[in-house]
Amino acid sequence: MKKNSMRRRMFLKGLGGATLAIPFLPSLMPRQAWAQQAQVVRRYFTFVGDYDYGHHQHWFPTLNPLSQRYNPGNGDHEIGYQSLQSFLSSPTSELSYILGNGLNPFVNKMNILRGLNLHTRIAHGRGPMLGNLADNDGHDTQARNVKALRSIDQVLAGNSRFTPHSNDPLTVGPGDHSSFSYARDSSNNINRASARSSKPHTLFSQLFYPGGSPISEGGSSPAPSRPGADILSRTIEDYRRVRNGRQISSLDRQVLDNALDRISDIQRRLDTTTVAGGCQFSQIDPSRTETDGLSSWNYSCFDHKYAFELYAQIFAAAAACDLHRVLNFHIDNLPNYDRHPTEDFHQGHSHRPFDNVNGMPNHQYMAQIWRNYVESFLVPLVTALDSSPDTNGQSILDNSLVHMTLECSTLHSDYSKPCLLIGGAGGNLTTGHMIDYSRRSLGPHPEQGDGFSTDPNSDRFGHNYYGAHYNRVLTTILQAMGLSRAEYEDPEINRFFQGRTDSLLGAHNNGIANIGGYGHIGTERSGVWYYTDAQLYNLQYARYNYHFYKNSLPFPVSSAG
């Protein structure tokens, strides 16, 4: 067998000892494996925020039943689905108020999921969005006692088959403890993971200037000398030298060119620093403000529109250079937007959706905040990932999953939680659809949120229905990323739901020997003032079939487009 003439060790030696990671290059694989198939490197991105988006009409392309039906044929319930392209009458049409039209070029690479419900009252819980039900504010007193779990980003980061990096995941938030990521500490306890710096120039320095601090933080003095710049400059030169060598393939050159372009572009944008909102970096004009009803994007460095765009480019560069394969962007508290005239932000916006704020319904004001986040961070991130060639000839976006979700949907409702998935996970997911797991035949869910009605004929109808457990989307993600059930299931949880013969949770849930799946289904008893145990079992748990909790969600059999 002919041996590969270019080894990773030789490549690293050629970089002169630089500590910056290199992109994964297919020609550095053993020749036999390379000839068979280029390795698919999958990456997982989260974009998670707390609070809610105000009203389902702002998130989903439609609130009506979808035009097509799919029956998985295994006893799992039938789903509705429809091509996302079918909701766009022109290139400038908007998928929804929040999603806007910036994602239109990617409609055939994404899925909007509806009808994903949590079965335990959480209210202000930050953990359940990525799978740790134990992080909650105690509205359900039983939920205080559930076992803490690693969130799925940490499960992926700790899996040696998925990521070889000891520094995964990369988590960025507005404060050290603002993440929704939960990791196991040295004492084997599960705690909230710390986030990286919320300043783009500091994050860039940490990622691409190992051992150096090239760009200053805050103040009005000129940026200091940048000793780390020489490290990065030498690395870029070495990338180019190897890129022009004869030992690597044309695809290798594309991958290296992409990494070079992304790093160099961000470096140019950060080289000339200016002061804006207490944060130093270029490309930010402090005189510019939004004109769409929000007070300003200049509230802080983290909340500035152009800072968000820079974060997106840094995330894309970190992925292109294979520095990280799990990347989290988390918003723990909404910025200082205009307040409700008589209430604080939480009470005024999350409990009074039909009040008038800034000349619009309050639920639309909340949606506008998330619309701006989508436009400022998500669209630039997805655009950059889609333009980045990956090791198998596809784009990084094609091989990845970008997962956007929020703490709640309408107000503090845990029903029809928002879920947007962009990317095909290296071909493991069909894409291009809105998928509805709601079972409208069961009637509206009894919880609709503050101010919303359970009456379908009311203009304040909340549009919440029974559907599928939200954790099944987390299982779907883990399996799409290539993990086996044994790598994330915990047999010590959900025992209350298995092996039943008493029909307490419905006769259809009797006799389940192994619940499986990822995370807690819910708690044994309600413990809250608005649910008795009987109501919890009859109105909640008995409406779902837990034989399928361990399975990925049903998806249409082929991609749209």
Description:
The protein has 13 helices and 17 strands. The protein is 25% helix and 11% strand. Strand 7 (182-184) and strand 8 form a beta hairpin.
**What is the alpha-carbon Rg in Å?**
24 Å
Measured between the Cα atoms of the first and last residue, the distance is 42 Å
Q: Which assembly state applies to the chains in this document?
A: single chain
Largest sheet: 9 strands, mixed
Mean pLDDT across all residues, rounded? Answer: 80
Q: How large a portion of the residues is in β-strands, by DSSP E?
A: 5-15%
Shape: globular
| Tally of DSSP helical segments | 13
Helix fraction, binned, reads: 10-25%
Largest sheet strand order: 2-3-16-4-15-14-1-11-6
Order of helices and strands: HHEHEEEEHEEEHHHEEHEHEEHHEEEEHH
Structural class: alpha/beta
- Could you list the spans in which at least 5 consecutive residues all have pLDDT below 50? 1-19, 32-36, 212-231, 272-300
